[in-house]
Amino acid sequence: MAKLESKIPSGPLADKWRRHKTEIKLVNPANKRKYEVIVVGAGLAGSSCAATLAELGYRVKCFVFHDSPRRAHSIAAQGGINAAKNYQNDGDSVHRLFYDTIKGGDYRAREANVHRLAEVSVNIIDQCTAQGVPFAREYSGLLANRSFGGAQVSRTFYARGQTGQQLLLGAYSALSRMVGQGGVQLHPNSEMLDLVLVGGQAKGIIVRNLNTGEISRHSADAVVLATGGYGNVFNLSTYARGSNATAIWRAYKRGACFANPCYTQIHPTCIPVSGDYQSKLTLMSESLRNDGRIWVPKRKEDRLKPPAEIPESDRDYYLERIYPSFGNLCPRDVASRAAKRMCDEGRGVGESGLGVYLDFADAIKRLGENGVRERYGNLFDIYHEITAESAYKSPMRIFPAVHYTMGGLWVDYNLMSNIPGLFVLGEANFSDHGANRLGASALMQGLADGYFVIPYTLGDYLAGQKAGSRPATDAAEFKEAEDNVRGMTRRLLENKGKEPVSHFHKRLGKLMWEYCGMARNKAGLEQALQKIPALREEFWANVNVPGSGDTLNQSLEQAGRVADFIELGELMCRDALTREESCGGHFREEYQYEDGECRRDDVNFAHAAAWEYQGADRTPLRNVEPLNYEFTKMSVRSYK
Amino acid sequence: MVAEKTAKKLFSVTLRVWRQAGPAQAGRFVDYPAANVNPDMSFLELLDVVNDGLTVKGEEPIAFAHDCREGICGTCSCTINGKPHGPGHGIATCQLYLRSFREGDVIVVEPFRARAFPLVKDLVVDRSAFDKIQQAGGFISVRAGTAPDANSAPVPKRDADLAMDAATCIGCGACVAACKNSSAMLFVAAKVSHLGLLPQGQPERDSRVLAMVQTMDEAGFGSCTNQYECSAVCPKLISHDFIARMNRDYVKALFKSRFQPVSLGGGGGAG
Amino acid sequence: MHLLGALFNSSIGKKLLMAVSGLVLFGFVTGHLVGNLQVFLPPDAINLYAHRLESLGIVLWLIRAFLLVCLIVHVWLAIKLTLENRAARPEAYAVQHVNRATLASRVMARTGFVVLAFIVFHLAHYTVRIGHPEWAEHTFRLSDGTMVRDVHTMIVQGFSHLGVSIFYILAVGILAYHLSHGIVSLVQTLGLKNERWTRGLERFAVAYCWLYFLLNASMPLAVLGGFVKQHA
Lengths: 640, 271, 232
Prior knowledge:
CATH class of the domain at 270-402 in chain A: Alpha Beta
Number of helices of chain A: 16
Shape of chain A: globular
CATH class of the largest domain in chain B: Mainly Alpha
Largest sheet of chain A: 5 strands, parallel
Largest interface: A-B, 94 and 84 residues
Oligomer: heterotrimer
CATH superfamily of the largest domain in chain B: Alpha-helical ferredoxin
CATH architecture of the largest domain in chain B: Orthogonal Bundle
Helix content of chain A: 25-40%
Number of strands of chain B: 7
Strand content of chain B: 5-15%
CATH topology of the domain at 270-402 in chain A: Flavocytochrome C3, Chain A, domain 1
Number of strands of chain A: 19
Distance between the termini of chain B: 78 Å
CATH superfamily of the domain at 270-402 in chain A: Succinate dehydrogenase/fumarate reductase flavoprotein, catalytic domain
């Protein structure tokens, strides 16, 4: 049984981080260069972490499966980044950001982590601005803000519709600077395929070069995983096609606990699926909900009618109706489920019946077409590109899609997993968003972890490791891990089945969306737990991976990732089944109020469930970290 | 107004794809007929479908670079019918839909071609030269934790907006692929201008442009002959005006660096 | 790196030298045209003009040397850049697609070489007077009685040859075409262009190049058509 010590510092909430920083151990500046740190992933969390550690003097090796760190999927975040700067003088504060985030997470996150996140949010904006991130500005030349996804203050900083890209380019520039100075050794096209534990501590990784097929061993004094989320378990999602869970999943199989895997976020405003061939769902920024109104026809019979022929009196602006105070701006999980309910009632629009209208007619009346174009022109263009329809003329059709995973590897307050020396940052960990993430908080967390948390907490761990004590890569543990990787690669290549990898991925996705998607229930999850292992067996019996392992082989890459997704999907269902309550992104149909809202069970489930691997054919162990709320009262989350 | 689309008319095309097993092997075009193509399908999804068909037949699928499939990561990199990212204006390959093609079309798909982008396999090329240029100077040196308050230095909105225009570059390399000289001037100009337009970027403005241009030259890109093919295919429609701006910046920096007084002090050793 | 080294070795430096030398040569051909147009005036005008130029002595040689240096730099860098640019794209695309590059911009190297050939011919023809040693002997008495070289006669006799005139007209046409990209391009390279000026600049370039071509062509045509005759 894993020991889950959260290591939350004592003291008043607002003092915990400050005090912790002064109390943790430091590494002498002259000694820092004697430590090597492996950072896997170079999105917001990974780039910022690698750059910052190198600035401090550590020797960093950074591994990315992309051809360049700048391509990590953080780049696709559109909307913005939250920070409690209160530049708008509208009553924002660190406490309010903390409170909104903890409430938004449906009281399933650690108070201390979330408060730290809110505290450092202000430093992130300073840091990024100094790096040259071109945040939107007012005519005064000062930074502009907007309100975003379920917040009642304007605290979101943004850079047109591509805040993620601009923040990533900022972190990438910091990383590039350190690569240029020799502080970071960059390994692009390099996928981590196993974690190496020596003496129970994370001391290295096994990597496959995706272009040459070369498999190599790398040792270090500590390993940091910042490899993003696992939403591609669903196949269709807003994730990039390459986004994968392989690094965290292989770490899980080496003993790292996987916490709350069932917490997945479904984003309400995506472009609906158009066909079987589809590879990707495209997000329409949530900011559209600031001016767009969401509706479906009141009567089922109207659902295929052209929207213009449906008079106002026959439209149901259901979010405004059900949630009068937040209306179209209610949190993502709430908006997504409401859309699902409307479609379940048979009132969904479009050919598939899986869509709702997002209507800008009022906004166009109020702001003029040019006004709307100025705010959302690029999004309307994207919509037009994909659907060949003009949202200026008729309402957009949108539908929820998998967008983010709140679950991830379990970490303590120092962002260290239960394996000493293995740190996990950003979306890959489970720490800050509880059961649901608020809009514009993902970028905040990734950068908080990388720029402002890990530089302190990693030092605390390294100070306890003797400088120069990292194992050599010819240690037996490295050989065992490399053999493991080679074995799996060989097995995939020599399988010579009939079906391409993508077919299994599609089938897994459909299973997950049906049984472990926006709404889950016991019977469905139990069925999924039958079907997924069967799919896994079929995968290993019948998958076809053409080509060799000595060159770029995208089928091989994908096969390894899908193999992991299948196993992870099973764990997600198991977690969803055992969490007998509804909270945030996890909605169990059995546990709801009459109006369809989440019925949390704080008595039995106010905890994080951290799953521990027990071997290939054994049910994993469910460890529990209780969530002790000392400062906030857990209440029913209401956006009415 | 047509609200409900009528059933899509499916059609057939032929993909003529550059296949090359590796940088040392010879490459050639291979035709792949694709029937029952849906106009709402994206071009990369068509490649997915063709690849699944090849896999079932036991042939090796076409290697192509792709990731986000929403035009922001800059990974996709095909030259389609001679044009990087294919027909269309201001889009990346992943944002190209088959409604841009007609029944019977032969669609020629080639990799981005440039000496500085050596081929990896089939349609995949190595664009790490861009990273090297960035490492040479594409940053503002500010260590984490040392930044002043973000609003302590206002930036005129006009400059901020212009910097943002330049910063929209997704690093895909289409500018290089479209230029007959395989010049990277638009990419480098966008990077130089993004930082050079902001007050934060001023201290390193001269050293940045000199270092980045030098690294660009060493990477084997060609020169700019002011034909603006680059900006014509740029998925983010970045203007070639930024190239003019970089030229100016470069010359200024060059002359400034040569005519500055020479410091004879020993530097500021502490202690 | 020395300043000159940086200019001659960096891509932008080379472009800058191309632009500056191009600008000088552009100034020269413009001035040269204006001077030559005096052929339409009574012979005194152009002969006096040529005499004044020649009496600059060492200064004239310095100007000529400067122009020659510009020409050499311009041609040498053109060759260098062309070779480098070709090497930067070792494998050509199977489908050649042009988005917006003008034809003039795509044939700069070729038009440039025709112009270079013309310059060599032109200098051999009128300045060194190969094949026409007698032109050096022709003299002309200005109204103040000074005896000067008779450039007017030389021009008229030169253009009376149909082949020479046709080559001349073709060459100035190609030079004008070369300039139609060159003028706009050099402004971009010098970093003085943006979207706001582009249209105006392009129009100026087109107008200039047509004017340059027509005025230049008018001289041999006028000679061939008998409008400008050898003076008595």
